[in-house]
Amino acid sequence: MTVVQMNQAKPLPLLNVRDLCVDYASRAGLKRAVDRVSFTLDANEVLGLAGESGSGKSTVAFAIARLHHPPAFITGGSVTLDGTDVLALKGETLRQWRWRDVSVVLQSAMNALNPLLTVQAQFTDLFKAHGIRNKAEIRERSAELLRMVGIEPDRLLDYPHRFSGGMRQRLVIAMALALGPKLIIMDEPTTALDVVVQRELLEEVTALRQRLGFSILFITHDLALMSQFCDRIGIMLNGELVEMGPPLQMVEAPMHPYTRKLWNAIPPLHPPRMPPRRVLENTP
Ligand SMILES: Nc1ncnc2c1ncn2[C@@H]1O[C@H](COP(=O)(O)OP(=O)(O)OP(=O)(O)O)[C@@H](O)[C@H]1O
Ligand SMILES: [Mg+2]
Questions:
Q1: Closest CA to 141 of 169, 120, 112, 170
Q2: Which domains can be identified in the chain, with CATH numbers?
Q3: What residue owns the CA closest to ligand 1's atom 31?
Q4: 55 CA closest ligand 1 atom index
Q5: Quick check: 8 pLDDT over 70?
Q6: Which residue puts its alpha carbon closest to atom 25 of ligand 1?
Q7: Choice among 90-94, 232-236, 251-255, 269-273 with the minimum mean pLDDT
């Protein structure tokens, strides 16, 4: 019997980052913040980036979204998103690419929202900047986006200050989803929120991802949250990506001593059982 071998080639990754280097210029010269970082991210995958403060996580994220600006300079490597050479994008093409192909959610929603404009006006600006001008379509799409993140569409005419911190972050996520990007970069999107809202929001993002099929690059200091939410986790140290793998592998068999140190810093869920305390007799 002949066995027909099917050629099941693995689909190309959505994002391919190769030997990315980013330097910050100062009077003393160039200081390397991201040093030959390479990784891939598949379609519909959630990749977490963890590592100590200053290890280069945000610099990587900003460079991928082409949001970096002087004194930051990309000094080496390549970034490809769905076949597009990201580092070669310029001018209007770059402006259109952002939000449509990749969007970014940062820690402080208030910095991302314009306090002087209603939510509807901000959606309108975003849609118009990307060639969607029909008022009825904009209203309908804005209302649907709000519904998606669990906010009543009648709040479209409110200003950002009338929303709670969690709701503002939902608004920013709705804007990030507006043009159906392939990749959403989230840099500590929930750090400013309490733990319950944080989890609720991430569960909603997971449900949206399953429905809409986008990928996420997720940066947080919360390793427990990361291991629950991400398919793979990368660990950064001094500008280098030192280890990457599925959460279970990273917890149970970390290869790099720094990864081990990071996990050991999380208090165990089940503390070691203490021997029962002796009750002293005749004590009041
Ligand atoms: N505007 C800047 N000018 C000069 N150096 C900078 C600038 N922004 C960041 N850096 C340096 O680049 C390195 C990486 O910083 P980055 O903000 O990417 O770290 P991070 O891992 O995101 O940290 P955190 O967890 O605190 O957000 C650090 O050494 C930082 O001091
Ligand atoms: Mg950062």
A1: 120
A2: 15-101+181-258 (3.40.50.300), 114-179 (no CATH)
A3: 54
A4: 21
A5: no
A6: 53
A7: 269-273
User: Ligand 2 centroid to 56 CA: how many Å?
Assistant: 7
Measured CA to CA, the distance from residue 176 to residue 217 in angstroms comes to 13
Q: Are strands 29-41 and 183-187 parallel, antiparallel or unpaired?
A: unpaired
- The distance between the two most distant Cα atoms of the chain, rounded to a whole number of Å, is 86
Q: Looking at residue 162, what DSSP letter applies?
A: G
83 φψ region: left (φ > 0), alpha (ψ -120 to 50), beta (else): left
Binding pocket residue ranges, ligand 1, CB within 6 Å: 24, 33, 51, 53-59, 71
Place of tokens 């940066």: 219
Can you tell me the distance from the alpha carbon of 210 to that of 274, in angstroms, rounded to the nearest whole number? 43
* Residue at token pair 């949001």: 67
Quick one: residue 25, left, alpha or beta (phi over 0 = left, psi -120 to 50 = alpha)?
Answer: beta
CB 114 within 8 A of CB 160: yes
**3-class state of residue 266 by DSSP:** coil
Reported as a single tens digit per residue, the pLDDT across 10-22 is 788 999 999 999 9
User: For position 274, what pLDDT does the model report?
Assistant: 55
Burial tier of 273 (Cβ tally within 10 Å: 0-12, 13-18, 19+): exposed
